[in-house]
Amino acid sequence: MTKEEKHILAKWAMNHALENGAQQASVSIANSQSSSVEVREQKIDKLEQAIQSSLSIRLFVDGKYSAHSTSRMKKEELARFIEEAIEGTRFLSEDEFRTLPEPELYYKGEGENLDLLDENFSKITPKEKIDLAFAAEKEVFGKDERLISVSCSYYDGLNERITVTSNGFEGYTANSHFGIFTSVSVDGGEARPESGWSESAIKYNKLKKEGTGKIALERALKKIGQEKIESGTMSMIVENRSMGRIFGPLINALNGSAIQQKNSFLIDKLGKKVVSDKLTLIDDPFIIGGRGSRLFDGEGLATKKRPVFNKGVLETYYIDTYYGKKLKMAPTSGGTTNLVFETSNKNLDEMVASTKKGILVTGFNGGNCNGSTGDFSYGIDGFLIENGQLTKPVSEMNITGNMLTLWSNIGEIGNDVNKNSSWLTPSVLFENVDFSGI
Amino acid sequence: MKVDRRNFIKTSGMFAAGSMVLPPFMQSCQNVQISADVKNYLDHFEVSTEMLQKVVATAMSKGGDYADLFFEHKTSNSIGLEDGKVNRAYSNIDFGVGIRVLKGDQTGFAYSENIALDDMLNAAKLAANIADSSSDFKQQAFSEKLPSDYYKISKKWEDVSVKDKVPFVQGINDKIFSLDDKVIKVNAGLSDETSFVLFYNSEGRLTYDYRPMVSFYAVCIMQKGEQIENAYAARSVRKGFEWLNEDLIDELANEAISKTNILFEAVKPKAGEMPVVLGAGGSGILLHEAIGHTFEADFNRKGTSIFSDKLNKKVAENFINIIDDGTLPNDRGAINIDDEGNDVQKTYLVKDGILNSYIHDRISAKHYGVEPTGNGRREGFRNMPLPRMRSTYMENGPHSVEQIFAEVDYGVYVDNFSNGEVKIGAGDFTFFVKSGYIIEKGKLTRPIKDINIVGNGPQALADISMAANDYKNDSGTWTCGKDGQSVPVTLGLPTVLVKKMTVGGTNA
C-alpha cells in the first residue's frame, strides 16, 4: 500500500467505527520491513526477510473503551472486525476517564525534520549486507586459539506509521535503523565466557562498519578466570551500555499508570529532592537524528523538551491523557524520548583510577526491582577494582539495595555517553553498594 | 482436537458469540487422499494441496535440503480490570505463513501475511536463497500426521462472549477486597488465545493443530501505614471456558492476599553464600535457568554452552531425574505437535544423575544424529523454530521435607519467584525471589523479599544434595524468551536442598 492508500484505509476504518456506534475512534496503520543475516564458520547461518503490516483501532463507545489490532487488512473483514469489536465493548463497564486527547494538545505540524529515515534504505544490496557480516567475522575468526564460536549479524529495518483520530489529529512517522552485532565465546577452562558488541545507526552511511568483532573478542577474553569474591559494601561503576537495568526502574516510577496504581516509589514527590544533586536529566525530543526523537507521542500529543530531574529534584512525571484525567494532572507524554544526562568531565578510565576498592559492572544477570518500594537485587559480572586498577574478572555476584538510596549515592556521572540508545546513558559511579559473593 | 468448519472462520473470538464470516468456497483437494480434518484446515487457510506443493517446490528451487510451511491463525482476546471495574478489552488477529528452507545447518526464512499464491511464492523465493545451486527436488506424496490430543476442551474460547467473561474478573476483584482491609487496589485480567496451525514440509508431511490457551491473573496492592506492597497470583492452562469457576477465584484471591501480606514483615537476609531450600512448584525456575537453557542443543552444537562436552556424563546425584515434557494434559507447555510437525515427547534430560539428552530441534537433532525430541518451537509464523523447553521438572526424590530442613543451620527457603536469567557460556544463572523465609537451625524464622539468587548451572546441579517426594507443577503464566521469541512454558520441582548459592542481601 502507498502512504495515500493507507491514509484512505485508516480514515475509512475510523469512519466505519463512528457510523457503527463509536463516538470517538483512533486508527493507526503500521508497516515495517526488515532483513537480517547471521554468519558462522564462514557460512551464512541464517537469512531472514520480513514485511509486516497491521491496523490498530481504539474505540470509545458509550463511555466504554477497547483497543484492537489485526494483520488482516481486507475491507470486508475489517468492517466485520470493527462491528464485532464495538458490540463487545458495550459489555464492559463505563470508564469516565477514557477519551481522546484534547485537540489543542495535538502536534500541529510545524516541527522541523528530525532526520530519522534513510531515504536510501532499499538501495542497500543483499550482497553488501552479507559482506558486512562476513567482515565482522573476519576480525575474529582464527585470531585466537581460545575462540570457540563467533556469530556475526547484520540487520536493518524500516518502520512507518500513519495515525488518524476522530477529533482531528493526523500524523505520519517513518524511521530506519541499521546494525551489526558480533557475539563471541571463548574457552576459559570450565566456563565458556561470552561477550558481544554492537554498532547501530539510523542511516546506513553513519553505521560504524568495523570493530564489533575485535571488541567482542577482547571483551570475552578479559572474562576468562571470572570468579566471585567476598561479599562487601564498596563502590560500583556501571558501564554506560549496561546502565539501563538500574536506570530503568527510576524512569518506570515516573509513569502515570504506576503513580495512579500505587506501584511507584516516587508518588507525591514532584518538586521534591529525591536523589543526589549530581543527577540532572533532560527529556529532549528534538535532537536531530536522535534515537528517541519525535514530534508527537503515540496519542498525537505534541512533545516538549522537559527537565526530568534538576540537581536531584523531581521535575516531571510521564502522564498520558487517561492517567492525566485519573490523577487530575495535565498530560505530559506517555513515554520518554531522548534522555540526556548532565555529565562531569571524567571518563570511565579516570573514574576507575579514582576508585580505591569497588567493582566495575559490565553486565547484569537477571534480578528485579519492587516498583512500590524501589528495593532491588540484580546479578552482575565485571571486574574488581583495587587501588585504581582492574585486578580480576568477577561474576556470579549480586547487588542489593534501594533505588532511592542508590541514586542518592552518586559519586560521579561520567562523560562517556552511549549514543547507541535513546537513553543517552554515561557510566556512573555509585558509592556504598552491597555486593554479595562468597 | 477436531474442529468443525463453523468455528474456523470468525474474524474475532472477542465478542458476541456465534458471529462468523464465511470464506469463499475453495477446492482444496486434487486427486489426493486427504482426511476431512486436514481439508478443514486447508479451507481455513484458503489453500489447496496443489498450492502447498508449488510453494515448497519454489522454496527448494535453489537446492535446499528441506523446506517447511507453517500456517498460523491466532486470535487473542483480553479483558482487564482497574479501579474496581472491568473497563478495558483488547484483541488481536494474526494470520500468515512462515516459509523456512534448510541447507545443512543453514536457515533461510521469510513469511507472508497474505496467503495468495503469488505472495507465498515471493516469500518462498527469498527463503530459498540460503542455498545457491540448482534443484533436484522431487515432490513427495502427501503423508498425513494425526496430531496427539493433549488439550481436550469443552467450550472453545471463540464461542464465548466477552459478556460471559466479565463476571469472573469482577468476581476476583470483589473477593480480594472482601478478604483484607489493607487492600487499596486490584488489577485483574483474563486473556484467551486460539491458534489454528497447518504444517506442510518437503518430505510430504501434512499436519495441523488447534491450540487453546487461557490466563487469569490478579495483582493485589495493599497499604499498611506508609508502606505499599503488591503481589500477584496467576494461572495459565490450555483449557476452555469450563475452567473458570468460583473455586478458582477463591484460590487466586487467597493466594494474592497471602503473598502480599508476607511482604510487610519481610526483611533482607545477610549477603553471601548459603544453603538454599527450594519449595515445591515454582522453584522449578532453577531447572529452567540453571539447566534447561544450557541443554538447548543449538548452544551445544555451537559449543557455546557450559554443558557442551557433558553428554552421557554424571552431572548430578543418582536420585535426580530431570524431564522436559510436552505431553502433560492441558498444560501451558504442552503441544500436540511441535512447530516443525514432529511428535512431542517426555524427554529425560538427566536420568539417574547422568546427562541423557539435549533439547533438540530438527537442525540440532540431525547434527547430533538423534531423533528430534519435539522441542522445535516458534513464537509464531513470523519466526523460525528453535530448540525450546516445554514443561521442565524434576521427579520426586528419596527424602522428606523434614529431613531437608533439618540439614540447614542458616540458609533461606524460597517458593515465590518473578523471573530468572542465564548466561549460557559461563553457566551463571539467577532467579528473583519475590518472597521466602530465613531458615535458622532447621526452622523458618523471618520472611524475606526482593532478593536475587545467583548460582552456576553445573555446580548448582551437582550441589542438589536432597530432594523430597512432594513434586508440584506450577501452572503460572511462565513465558520463556530467547532470541526475541516468547513461548509459553511451565515448570515444577519437589522440595530440594542446594548446598550453597549466592544470596543477595545486606552486609550490615
From TrEMBL, chain A:
It holds the Pfam family PmbA_TldD_2nd. InterPro entries: Metalloprtase-TldD/E_C, Metalloprtase-TldD/E_cen_dom, Metalloprtase-TldD/E_N, PmbA, TldD/PmbA_N, TldD/PmbA_sf. One of its GO terms (cellular component) is cytosol. Residues 25-87 form the Metalloprotease TldD/E N-terminal domain. GO terms for biological process: proteolysis. Residues 120-223 form the Metalloprotease TldD/E central domain. Residues 231-437 form the Metalloprotease TldD/E C-terminal domain. It comes from the Bacteria. GO terms for molecular function: metallopeptidase activity. PANTHER family: METALLOPROTEASE PMBA. Belongs to the peptidase U62 family. This is TldD/PmbA family protein. It comes from Draconibacterium aestuarii. The lineage of its organism: Bacteria, Pseudomonadati, Bacteroidota, Bacteroidia, Marinilabiliales.
Automatic annotation (TrEMBL), chain B:
Residues 272-505 form the Metalloprotease TldD/E C-terminal domain. Residues 156-261 form the Metalloprotease TldD/E central domain. Keywords: Hydrolase, Metalloprotease, Protease. The keyword Magnesium does not apply. GO terms for biological process: proteolysis. One of its GO terms (molecular function) is metallopeptidase activity. This is TldD/PmbA family protein. The lineage of its organism: Bacteria, Pseudomonadati, Bacteroidota, Bacteroidia, Marinilabiliales.
